[in-house]
Amino acid sequence: MSETESRAGRRGGREARRAMRAAPLADNQRPVWPGLEGGRYKPLTDADIQKIHHAALDVLENIGMADAIPSGIEVMTKVGAKLQSNGRLTFPRALIEDTLAKAARKFPLYAQDPRYDMEPWGSKVYFGTAGAAVHIVDPITGDYRESTTKDLYDIARIVDTLDHIHFFQRAIVCRELTDPFEMDFNTCYASVFGTTKHVGTSWVAPEQLEASLQMLHAIAGGEDKWRERPFVSQSNCFVVPPLKFAADACRCLEVAVRGGMPVLLLSAGQAGATAPASLAGAIVQEVAEVLAGLVYVNAIKPGAPAIFGTWCFVSDLRTGAMSGGSPEQALLSAGAAQMGQFYDLTAGTASGMTDSKIPDAQAGYEKAYNHALVGNAGANLIYESAGMHASLLGYCLESLLIDNDIIGAVQRTIKGIEVTDESIAMETIRQTCLEGPGHYLGADQTLRLMQTEYVYPLVGDRTTPKEWVEQGRPGIVDRAIRKTRQILTNHFPAHISMAVDDSIRERFPVRLPREAMRKTAAAAE
Amino acid sequence: MSETESRAGRRGGREARRAMRAAPLADNQRPVWPGLEGGRYKPLTDADIQKIHHAALDVLENIGMADAIPSGIEVMTKVGAKLQSNGRLTFPRALIEDTLAKAARKFPLYAQDPRYDMEPWGSKVYFGTAGAAVHIVDPITGDYRESTTKDLYDIARIVDTLDHIHFFQRAIVCRELTDPFEMDFNTCYASVFGTTKHVGTSWVAPEQLEASLQMLHAIAGGEDKWRERPFVSQSNCFVVPPLKFAADACRCLEVAVRGGMPVLLLSAGQAGATAPASLAGAIVQEVAEVLAGLVYVNAIKPGAPAIFGTWCFVSDLRTGAMSGGSPEQALLSAGAAQMGQFYDLTAGTASGMTDSKIPDAQAGYEKAYNHALVGNAGANLIYESAGMHASLLGYCLESLLIDNDIIGAVQRTIKGIEVTDESIAMETIRQTCLEGPGHYLGADQTLRLMQTEYVYPLVGDRTTPKEWVEQGRPGIVDRAIRKTRQILTNHFPAHISMAVDDSIRERFPVRLPREAMRKTAAAAE
Question: Is A292 part of the contact surface with chain B (CB cutoff 8 Å)?
C-alpha cells in the first residue's frame, strides 16, 4: 500500500477503501512476497560452473542431438548447426555463444490478473505447481483414484487463493478424456478458467495447441492483446534424454514460438537412468540439452522467450525408480539453478516432489529440504513445488495447502537477515537491560516487526500441547482438509465473462460442466 | 576399509573378517559420514558479520552482564572485566580480543568408543540430540505422558544405533526423580550407560556434578584417564537473557572447567521475548552473552575447552510462545553458526525443533528446512536435531528414527556436488549416446556410485504406489514404530563392565533398574 493509497484510505471514501482492499500490501508491509532474491546457497563454485559449461559445449560440439525433425534440421542448420553422417545434429561452440548472446532475457511471465505478473530473472524466486500426475490422493485413506478435469480445475482454484504459490502449471492428467485433442484443450481450459495467475501447460500435437491459442485470443480480447501479455506458457519436453529430440514436442515448440507463447525448454533426464549417475555429469547433459533447445527457439525466432528448464531428476540406483524427494534431487536442482544464473537466463527447475504416497512426515521433510536449498540457490521458477506425491504419480489437494506453508517459510529464509543499524537494535538492548522491563515483549521494535519480519503459517500449528489437546489433537492434515473444503466451496474465479465462455463452448468441445464452475446451493451449505 | 584390510578379508581369516566388520567403512566408501564440511549457505555477508561482531563488543563494553556470582566477579575482574556501580560486569574490547586469542580451538569431543570421537571445528558438521522435554509423545495417539529415567536410557540406546546422530545430549527430564541430586546423577548415568557416543548433560548444583565426575572417573579407569579423553560435556545455561548471569549454572561451570569437562556455553535467548525481535539484534545479544561466558571460562583456566553455544530461539510474536520450527529459527541458527566460524571457535547451535506435537508433515518440514540451512551453513554441533516436538516440550522416540533420515539426507546435501573430470562423465555420456544402450542403468559409473554418491533412507519409503498398497499403505510413522521396537528389544550396550557398574551402584543412588538394562526373555520374544 503506497503512502498515497494509505492517505486516501484515511479519508474514508468507499471507493478508496475498495481500492485498498483490492491492491496488494506493499512489499515492505508483508514478511514475504513473490520474487524474493535468493542466491545465498551455492552448491557449485565458480570453477565448477565453468567446468560444467565447457563440458556442455563439448557435448554439443562432439556428440550432439539425435532425432531432430526435418523442420528443426532446416532452421538449426541454417544458423550453423551441423547434420552429421550418423544423423545427429552437432552445435559448434560459436553457435551456442551466439545463441546465448541473443536469447531473450528479462521477459515477464504475465498473468490474467496483472497483480500476479512475474519477473523471473536475476536471482528472483517464484514457486508454482506442475506435473502430470495420474492419480488424486486421499490424504487420510491413502486411496489413489484417477484424476479428472474437475480435479484440475479445483487445483487451479485453490492455487488462485494461496499467497505463496505464484503460478499454476498443469499438475494432473485429465484421465476421463481419452481423446488427445479433448485432453489438451480442456487441460488448458480448466487451468485458465480456474486461476488468474500465470498458467503453464503442454500439448502433444500442433492442432490442439492451435485451438487453444484461439481460445486464449478470445479470452485476451484478440490475438494482438494475447501477444502483448501472453499469460500461458508451454511446458515443452522437447528432448528425450540422453540427447535426442522428441518429435511431437518439437512440432508444438515451433507453433508456440511462432504464436508468441513463452516456452519452458524442459529436459527431464533422470540421473542413473537417462542421465549419468554422477550429479555433475547429469547437470552437464541437461545443460547441453537445454542449450540445444535454446538454439532451436532462437533459430525459429531470435529473442523468443524461453525458460532454461534443467529439471535433472534422480534414480534410486537400487531399483532404477525415480526418487524426487532425495537429497541428490536438491543438489541437482540447486546446481541447475546456478547454471541458469550463470547464463543470465530465466532458470526453471523442479523441487518439492516427494517419494511418499501421502502427506506424512516424509512428504514434509523431503519437500522442505529441497525447497530450502533450491529456493535459496535462487532458482527463478520452481516447478512441482506443491501438492505432488509418489515422485509425480499422485496429487493431493490438501498437500497444496501444507506445501503453501512450507514455501512461505522458505521464502522467509530467502528474504534473509537484515543487518542495519536499526536491526542491530543497540538502543533497544540498552533500554531493555538498563532502564526497561528486562524483556522485549512489549518493546516498540517487537510490535513493529510482528507483521514484517515474521511469517505465520496457514495450516501449520503453533498451539501449546494443552491447547492442542483441547482442540482434539488435530494433525496438519486435519486442518488442511477443513481449509481445502472451505476454499472449494467458496472460491469460484469469475474473471472470464460468461459471453466469452459461451463463444468458446460453441466452438470447442469443453468438457468441464458449467455446474462445476459456480457455487451451488448444495456446495454453499 | 583400507586396501590392506580388504586383502586380509579376501585371505579369509576369521580374525580379519571380524576386524573388518568392527571397523567403520572408510569415508570414501560411504555416501555420508560425521563431520562433513558445510559452509555453502551464507545468510550473513562478511560485512554483516563485522557489524554484528562490533555491536556485540559495544554491548559488552557499555551494557555488560548483571548478576555475576562473587567467585565469577573475582576471576573475571582479575583478567580485566570492570565491576560497575550498578553491579554489572562490563568487558573492555581488549579483554574480549585477548580471550579470543587464547580460547581453546580444535579440541576433539571424545566418546567412550573412539570411533565416535568428533572434531567439531572449521566448518565440520555433527548432529546430536539435546533438550529437557518433560513429556514422551505417543506418535499415534498424540498422548503426552511424563518422561522417566528409563525413557532417557532408551533414547540413548536408540541414538547408539543410528548412523546420522553423532552425539547424545540429554533430551528429557527424568520426572519420576524429585530429588535434584538423584535427577542430575541418574541423568548422567542413564546417558553414559545408554550410548558409547559423546554425551552432553547438565547439572543444577556442584555437589551432583562432583558425584557424577567420580562416576565418570570410575568408568574411564581413573581421573587421569578421564582428563585425557573427557567423553561427557556440560551443557551450561550460564546466562539468563538478556545479559544476566545465572548463579547456579555459574557454580557448575566453575566445577566443570576445573574438572576437565568441556563446557557448552549456552545462551538461549528468545527473539521478541528475552532477546530483540529483530534477528540481527538477537544474534548480537547472544554473541555478546557467549563471549562473556568465554571470558569467564578462560579466566578460570586459560584454554579450557568451551563450545560457542549461541542458541537464539524465536517467539511467535502474536502469543509470545516459542516457535522452534519457524523459518526465523533457521536464519538465527545459521547466522549464529557463521559467527562461531568467524571467531574460529567450535560453534554449537540448535536446529530441528518443531512446533508440531506429533510426527506429522509439519514436524517433517519444520525440521527439514531448519536442518538443511543450519547444516549447510556449517554449524559444528547441531543440538536438538532429533526427536523433539512441541518446541522442546515433548520427545518422541519414533521421531528419532525419522529425524535420522532427515539428517542423513541433509548430510548428503552438505557433501555437495563433486565436479571433477571423472564426475563430469564425458566418456560415459559419449559411449552411452554413440555406442551404448542409450541409457545409463548398467553403466560402470552407475554401479560404482550406487553406494558412495547416493544415500538411502532407513524408514523413509520409496516404493511405487502399487507396492505401497500391497504393503498395507504404511506411513513413515508405522515404519518408525516397527524399527524402534526392534532396536529397543535388541540393543543393550554393554561397554561398561558389571564390576564398574556395581561399584557405582554401591556408592550412588542409581535409579535405573538393572532389569531395564538387559535383554529379557519377554523382550526378546
Answer: no
